[in-house]
Amino acid sequence: MALSQLDIQLKTLPTSPGIYQYYDKGEKLLYVGKAKNLKKRVLSYFNKTIDNGRIRTMVKKIHEVRHIVVATETDALLLENNLIKKYQPRYNVLLKDDKSYPWICIKNERFPRVFPTRRLIKDGSEYYGPYTSMKTVKTLLDLIKSLYKLRTCNYDLSKQKIDAGKYKVCLEYHLGNCEGACEGKQTEKEYHTHIEHIRQIVRGDFKTSLQKFKDQMQKHAAAMEFEEAQRIKEKLDILENYQSKSTVVNPNITNVDVFSIISDEGYGYVNFLQLAHGAIIRSHTLELKKRLDETDKELLEIGIIEIQQRFDSQSKEIYVPFDVEVGDALKVTVPKLGDKKRILELSERNAKYYRMERFKQTKIVDPDRHTNRIMAQMKADLRLSKEPRHIECFDNSNIQGSNPVAACVVFKNGKPSKKDYRKFNIKTVEGPDDFASMEEVVFRRYRRLLEEDEPLPQLIIVDGGKGQLSSGLKALETLGLRGKIAIVGIAKRLEEIYYPGDSIPLYLDKKSESLKIIQQLRNEAHRFGITFHRNKRSNAALGTELEVISGIGEKTIVTLLKHYRSVSKVKTASKKSLTEVVGAAKAAIIYNHYHTKE
Description:
The chain is of the alpha+beta class. The chain has helices at residues 5-11, 38-46, 53-61, 73-87, 134-147, 159-163, 171-174, 188-202, 207-222, 226-240, 296-310, 338-365, 367-381, 434-451, 466-478, 513-547, 554-564, 567-572, 575-582, 584-597, and strands at residues 18-23, 29-35, 64-69, 103-106, 114-117, 126-128, 256-263, 267-276, 279-289, 317-319, 331-333, 390-399, 402-412, 415-416, 422-425, 459-463, 486-491, 496-499, 502-506. A hairpin with a 3-residue loop joins β7 (256-263) and β8.
């Protein structure tokens, strides 16, 4: 039965933190949720019986799942809050009110107050956060209060009013919590020095403060004041886990559109993040097919125009990874570091995840297209003249020269073809000589293919560096195949790809699919060769003692070992027991062999 579009989406969801959005057939948003693991969370709606009637009704209406990938679970929590407040989905109950997560405000005043708030007012004040826990906010403010004496009153402390003696110090001054700025007992410069230290604390730089807390905790513990020590320890835990920056909510970034692009040989994927008042309110990825080998710059320019028209964006500024030409109406910013760079990296992350999901979906729906893309990519990455539809990989196995063997594994269209695997006993090489062994098996393999008129591979991979590659090349030269089949070597340490006659190796991107297929080939050849080698060693070790008995063949040895499990038990078996297993004649031979010896 053909899979629905929803089934395919569910199979290819990422396992990263993020938010998921459910849409019905009319593209109406039904629900927004957050997840530490998107795939696990979304599948939980479809893999179990749901008791809640509201959720059960919603699941029946789901036609499409969209998601935004973020860096942390905290960011997912904040992004969920943004989207629910913006779109008010029908099936969300929580977070629909106008209550937002708390911030720490450093008020824009001559002697700034520092306090928690849930409202952002554009009056030049500084806001840090948002925080997903009010407990974290209180801990930070307690830390600030214990280190610095700040005012809590809301008086207008202008120079004229202070000089005129309009205010008198309050109880907070007498308790030692304030230094009396209202009576001019503290200078503006001194107060602002404290505010600068507080800025560092709320940005997450509080190593000095943490050390002070640790010292206090140790003193309380030494004085047997364990309850007080525990209270400080709890504060320390909160501060050490404190995350000062959120990527998805930033009051310093106003209304902007963020665009990034990831591309391969056939398609470009343009991701769009829309920010309003410092919060992400939309994400969309556009897939663009390359028709004339367009550059990333050309594709991104096409994507920006199309996306802004589709979503009727009114933003006057865009963030992009490189300069683009989109007319004079838009301000183009290429972030290099800081908050703007982080939001661009988040967009790139979503483009990459979208591309990976499209690959997985294509693999399910159209495996031929997936194979063609992989083969074209390998041809380009490895600088081959033909697509490597048929690849063979060789590996040697021996321990100090004992039982030397080799393995050849075959991949066709990027997948293992196990019926074509071959194993070799090394016949012409004495001792542990990997180079000579490689030359022997490559020669034997392709001499046989030529004799039997079987198709030759487009690519041969030998497990090893320049030495093994030279040996394989020598065998091909002897057979007259040099230049007709591409051959490369892969060295394990840094995954270098060596070519004949080139001393400088090729380094493929660690995340490239071409390298992953080569590694899979190498690992499969190693596994196949090691298994064959172990079996050979095992058979040699077990069979040696029984093989010396005249009149006992291989089948009888196998029957004995299957029944008795070890040679020592065969030795001590009675004549009657042996007769029941292998018959009277052979039982007599085996019994007499061991007992005559004794």
